[in-house]
Amino acid sequence: MDVRFGTVAGRGVIAATVLGSGIAFLDGTVVNVALPAIAEDLDSDIAALQWTIDAYLVTLTALLLLGGSIGDRYGRKRVYIGGLIAFTLASIACAAAPSATMLAVSRAVQGVGAAFLVPGSLAIIGATFASEDRSRAIGAWSGLAGVASALGPFVGGWLVDAASWRFVFLINVPLAAVAVLITAKYVPETRAPVHAPPDIVGAILVSAGLGIACWGLIEQLVVPSLVGVALFALFVVVEARSSHPMLPVSMFKNSQFSGANATTFAVYAALGGAFFLLVLELQLALGYSALEAGLALLPVTAMMLLFSARAGALAQRIGPRLPMTIGPLVVALGMLAFIRVEPGASYLTTFFPAAIIFGAGLSLTVAPLTSTVLAAAGENDLGVASGVNNAVARLAGLVAVAVLPAAIGLETTMAPVELSDSVDTALLISAAAAAVGGVISFLTVRTGAVVAPTLQGAEQPCLDPCRANMAA
């Protein structure tokens, strides 16, 4: 397809992909600010809150690869809409959950739906836009979807204070309905000319490995942790030998692809662990309401909105190496600045400047990182490549949320003084992880400008003549 950026068709495709993936990203952050209210209402301890986050991340991470490859094979638009519907039904189940256990189960189902949304959105952009406009489209998608993530704490805080934590999940319903309508109208159907069967064995192995390992890490059980790691290792071996793997291990022979994903893991591990605990600290130790905790993070939203697309355009001109090196280092500085936040400290002199620094680093990192991953992939593997990168990001957050509380000694209690001291330690660890991401980019990412992959011959004709004419 050759949809051009700035046209009616182009705006429709971006709106559809931003809304759908944005709901999944929003849900990844909107829940954090509701955790104290969930803990009080459902009588949850820190482990139950970890499962509220990680149950979603386990299925999302495990099935992102399958979601991307299924979209490539059977139609990206069709799979994308199916993911929207599944995500919406699971969101309703989350809102109705009577216990922490049922909430975790519903969150796991929600992650399944999200696994078909997130890689599908990027693959649709990659397969639909003209090659010369693809980086701009990805930059716009990254910025707007990133804003959805950053708006999560604010939206969640307002809903918790104004109504109930249950509305944090119900808000997905009308947004998903609009996303389905826009997708049906503006997104053309595309697929790769590969029709191998889905990799069900791989999906089972990676799901079991991640789930069991996560259980072992959260509950601090050695044997399940080792079993989970062993299953994940077996998954890699099976994929290397499979004729139709959902994870083409050969992709990692490309140093650009491997380096970008290693940077993704380091940066998103830092984000996942730090913000899981930071939002708890704001409410439980500093006395912020849920809405105030959400408002505190609005500067991050502003920075993402203002600079993500510009960062994508910059990487297109000068290459991704410099933005991907400096961005994570700035993220690390922002996390170190958050250490100054303590009870009684002024928001304007402590939290606000830290949020600005953090948002600047994140804006500089996200779009170049995404473009680099797609540029390193083959033209028929866009869905798989975006699925791999998103899986790496979610895996990083999953591991951080599972490991970090125990690593800093925060195992069961959420007492304000202990929580505040522990979060400072967590921020130091997270800052170090983000800085490692910048170093990895410097060592592995090429200096040349990002060249988006061409897609000639990669897609089937548009299934709807009216939409085909509109795209033209």
User: How does the helix and strand content classify structurally?
Assistant: mainly alpha
Averaged pLDDT:
83
Secondary-structure element order, N to C? HHHHHHHHHHHHHHHHHH
What Rg is obtained from the alpha carbons, in whole angstroms? Answer: 21 Å
Share of residues in helices: over 70%
Biggest sheet, in brief? none
Beta fraction: under 5%
* Low-confidence sequence ranges: 451-472
How many β strands by DSSP?
0
| Cα separation of the termini | 9 Å
Number of helices: 18
Morphology call: globular
Keywords:
mainly alpha; disordered C terminus; 472 residues; 18 helices
Fold topology:
Layout: H1 8-30, H2 35-42, H3 46-74, H4 76-95, H5 100-128, H6 134-162, H7 167-170, H8 172-186, H9 200-219, H10 222-241, H11 255-284, H12 290-296, H13 298-318, H14 321-338, H15 347-375, H16 382-407, H17 416-444, H18 465-471
Helix pairs in contact: 1-5, 1-6, 1-8, 3-4, 3-5, 3-9, 3-16, 4-5, 4-8, 5-16, 6-12, 6-13, 6-15, 9-10, 9-16, 11-14, 11-15, 11-16, 11-17, 13-15, 14-15, 14-17
How would you briefly describe this protein structure?
It contains 18 helices and no strands. The protein has helices at residues 8-30, 35-42, 46-74, 76-95, 100-128, 134-162, 167-170, 172-186, 200-219, 222-241, 255-284, 290-296, 298-318, 321-338, 347-375, 382-407, 416-444, 465-471.
Describe the structure.
The protein is mainly alpha-helical. It is built from 18 helices and no strands. Helix 3 packs antiparallel against helix 9, helix 11 runs antiparallel to helix 17 and helix 14 packs antiparallel against helix 17. The protein starts with 7 loop residues before the first helix and ends with a helix. The C terminus is likely disordered.
